[in-house]
Structure formats: structure tokens, C-alpha cells
Amino acid sequence: MSTELRVPTMAELNAEGKQPEVLFWVGCAGSFDDRAKKITKAFVKILNKANVSFAVLGTEESCTGDPAKRAGNEFLFQMQAATNIEVLNAYEIKKIVTACPHCFNTIKNEYPGLGGNYEVVHHTQFLKDLLDSGKITMEGGQFKGKRITFHDPCYLGRANGVYEAPRALIRKLDAELVEMKNCKKKGLCCGAGGAQMFKEPEKGTKDINIERTEQAIDTKPEIIAAGCPFCNTMMTDGVKNKEKEGDIAVLDIAELIAQAEDL
């Protein structure tokens, strides 16, 4: 089996007169952050295996503008959004999948008001659809019976009400899903949202990612599952702070599935 990743760009497909079923919006973290690139690769491996017709924008993709907007720079947000919408509409994009809840939330909820109307799904929803339609099959294998706790990303859970898709995928791994005391609608932020990712924490008695990591550790997990590159960073830092990196892995849902499939 070829291990080469097939990642066509919209420009390439457009030149051939082809239109993919779905655009994979990679996002800044998935493009530039070394840890998040692994999530991007895991997701692409699954798309390749399932023979999904997809493409990326490549160099034509710019930041959605989420961090600018959350930090209060509405002008910069609208500039970034307008540029992206122009590109997306020029390619007549209908459906977008992304592994970043921040991109998901912004394109789904903020772009329509600026002329960008698309069907937007989070990668956990897309993966569940692939599973339900039989395009991918999952046997838990190495994750059978493992204790996994899922951290709800704010922009996926509380902002958009997506709770079931990531949990359904964890259950399909034959893993034992253990819930933190703050989960689903009562989920606790990892501390990176609202553009907090890009600044030092405020003075206080405890950083929020440490509080959240403690809640995760209370479930005695072998794996903390995440569905957001920012959450992944914050939870990984929390696990390191507690010197538990030898005992607890922090993995994205896409990585769990790719590993279960030996991709």
C-alpha cells in the first residue's frame, strides 16, 4: 500500500475541470504547528483510505480571522473573511470539513453574514458519517478497553451543540469512555479560546488548562482525546505540568482512528 499522502489543491482540480465533494479547510494550526500537522496528516490518511474526493486551498487559504475577531479586531477579521469568501465562492465550494472548531464555528456562523454560505462540518462529524456509510470500518484493536476521556472543545460543544459524534467514534474503538465532571453542556474551556492561545495567562492562582487537566486526570485515563488543535496544546501542556506525559497520551480523534486502522 502506498504511504504517499494524496492532497490535491483546488487550483489543480479546477484546471482539470473537476470539483471535489468536499473542501478540507486545514487552518493555521493544522498547517504550521508541528503537533497539529500530525492531526492533519492523520485525517488525510483516513480521507485517502475512504477514497473521499477532497481538495485543499493550499497557499490560497488564509486564517479565517477567528483570533482577530475574538481579540476585538473586527476590521482585520472582516478583511480576512472577505478574502477567503472571495476564493471559496470563485471555486463554487459547497461543503467544507475542518479539524479546527475555531475555523468550523467562524465559517459556519460568521461567514454567511459576509456572503459566504457553505455546509460546514467538523472532522468528527465527517468521520462518523464515513463510518455510518461503511466507507471506513473500525475495530478497536490497540484501543480495546483503554480508558479514554473526551475534552469538549468550546467552539464545537457549547457553541455548536456537537457532543455525540466524537463520543460515538471513541465507543467504536471498543474503548471505555470516561467522562470528566465538567463535560458536554457543562464543559470547561481548555484556556486557549477567545485568542487567549496567543498571550501569556493573566495573573491568578491557577492556569485554566491546569484546572481542566486535573479534571481529566481524575478520570484516571490512559488517553485524553481532543477534537481541536488548541485544546490539544493546552491539555498536553497540562499533562506535562503534572509530569504525567509517560502515562497519559493526548490524541486527536482523527489520530485515534488512523492508529486503530494502522494508517
User: How many individual β-strands?
Assistant: 8
Report mean pLDDT, rounded to a whole number.
Answer: 95
Given the helix and strand composition, which structural class is it?
alpha/beta
Helix segment count?
11
Write the layout of secondary structure elements.
Elements (H helix, E strand, L loop, with lengths): L9 H6 L6 E4 L1 H6 L1 H16 L4 E2 L10 H5 L3 H17 L4 E4 L2 H10 L8 E4 H10 L14 E4 L13 H9 L3 E2 L30 H11 L4 E4 L2 H13 L7 E4 H8 L3
Parallel strand pairs: 1-2, 1-3, 3-4, 5-6, 5-7, 7-8
Helix pairs in contact: 3-11, 7-8, 9-10
Description:
By secondary structure, the chain is an alpha/beta fold. Helices cover 42% and strands 11% of the residues. The protein is globular and about 50 Å long. Helix 7 (123-132) crosses helix 8 and helix 9 packs across helix 10. A 4-stranded parallel β-sheet has the order 2-1-3-4. Strands 6-5-7-8 form a 4-stranded parallel β-sheet, sandwiched between helices. The mean pLDDT is 95. It has helices spanning 10-15, 27-32, 34-49, 66-70, 74-90, 101-110, 123-132, 164-172, 208-218, 229-241, 253-260, and strands at 22-25, 54-55, 95-98, 119-122, 147-150, 176-177, 223-226, 249-252. It folds into 2 domains: 10-129, Rossmann fold (3-Layer(aba) Sandwich), CATH 3.40.50.1860; 138-260, 3-Layer(aba) Sandwich (Rossmann fold). Helix 10 links the parallel strand 7 and strand 8 (249-252).
